[in-house]
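INPUT
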Amino acid sequence: MSESSPETIGEVRNYVESPIIMATVRIVSPFVFTFGLFIMFHGADSPGGGFQGGVIVATVMLMLGIAFGIDPLREWVGESALVAILSVGVAAFLAIGVGTVALGGGFLEYHVIETELGIYHATKYGIEAVELFIGVIVASTITGLFFAIDAGKNDGDSE
Amino acid sequence: MNVELPLLAFVLGAALATAVLRDVLGAIIAFATYSLGIAVVWVVLQAPDVGLTEAAVGAGVTTVLFLLTIAKTVRPSGERVIERLDWPALGVSVLLVGVLLTTLGALPEIGSPDTAVLTSEVTTYYLENAYSEVEVKNAVTAVLAAYRGFDTLGEAVVVYSAGVGLLVVLGKEVFA
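OUTPUT
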């Protein structure tokens, strides 16, 4: 994708290598990622949850894409891995819901995990697991949108 | 100090700037500012969960996605900063706002103790039983992930469908 295209008039340069941005993102991104996970898990006891945390985790990918270039990032993530992660998130959420039904409860009635399998505080862990999988779905979808919109600059009719 | 009036002026100003700025980049930045203002409005209205979503999605992610989208556009030529007003469109917008404003009188006052939400049996049940039944302190999360978990599954699948729908429209199998 980075090869110089013959027509330079319609070429879109939306990546500028900047040591300041790279250094900043290198330092900030682990904290933002941790904050996203915190919002996801601590959403049970404070404002937040899977949707908000997932978006914050996705902003880490956006930051990395802006700092180090979107094409290298896409190769690093793996194009099909992203779709796989997205599908796994939905499947895992469904599995928890159907799993509680299989244990004899209602859909997402986490209490049966505690009574049937003997895991204490299963309701709280169940909610946190669901939040995590929501976060996985949201984060991978936003990253996917980011990649797909960026890919649009390479093909299609450019004026 | 009363924070509502300056906040309202800020949000309205940002919304107006988004609508009338001629430069697309400027309009996107104004739109991000507007989202930030709306996020603060949510916090003022005691809805931190929604405020967090607005700040992350509205001010953060959509701004980046919009910026990527305009990469193929060009700056409009000329010196004008403000877009020329489209009077028929403005008339329709003012009319719509007028119609919506007629419902304003039916809304309860902010923080009023006898709103339908606060006096409803359902709310009282959630607030009283959320911690003992589902062991989470945030009642919003209790409703979202436990009491109405099926709805939330639907929401998560909507996000998933957005991704899949994009792939279907683009005719691709991966996000590339």
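end of record. The longest helix of chain A spans residues 122-151.
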